[in-house]
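Now for one record.
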Amino acid sequence: MTGRHDKGPHEHDRGLAHDLPEPARRRMIRLMAGAGLVPLVGCTPREKTSASPSSSAGCAKIPEETAGPFPGDGSNGVNVLKESGVVRSDITSSFGESAGGTAEGVPLTITLTVVEAASGCGTPKEGAAVYLWHCDRDGAYSLYSEGVTEENYLRGVQETDDQGRVTFTSIFPGCYPGRWPHVHFEVFGSLADATAATSITNTSQLAFPKDACEAVYATDGYGDSVRNLSGLSPQDDGVFGDGHERQLARMTGSTADGYTAALTVPV
């Protein structure tokens, strides 16, 4: 790797030590599922008016994952959530009193649909909030990584609409050593909770399909990601290794036109 990743062991190289989840909860869910107590099937959101009678059976919540060492939510140093301007849909550029940089890369639109798990994923969760962040194409996290500590790009908050949706305009993240390409997010009960950095209800991660990663990493600027991805698989990842099916994004688009990643988030 070049630039800021050359200087000895990078913080990301300790990703599996820093970025491991507590898998016990997910193992317990699977054990309960084996006993018929918790369904593990994926959830498809429906319009508010089209919930079926069977929706009352409930569905599994999005798996809980670590926020990792670079959350920017006040739990590990800096807190971007209390800064004016963090509520935004386009997260490609830094805002406020930052250095004002813009993250380069293949365009990516991320759409999360937050739904009520207790209703069988049939009821969108309107008025909740999502804080979303991820690394840049070099694998660096704004506010933390060498060279971008004065930037706050690729971080933002959105309030869910009447269909439970939030949409962020971003760039496809790079792949750094030890982790499958991913996006972090936290769900809050309201926008007020998010901007006060309090009362997180769910913390999870979105995973990208391998074919989309390979296509993006073949473009200019993602050279390090080609090498980093080559020795990885979701099954070997410290976060997704115990199952990532319900966190795998549905992808559309191309490197020329940009990609859209969509995920349903039962809470």
Residues 136 and 173 are 5 Å apart (CA to CA). Residues 1-56 have pLDDT under 50 and may be disordered.
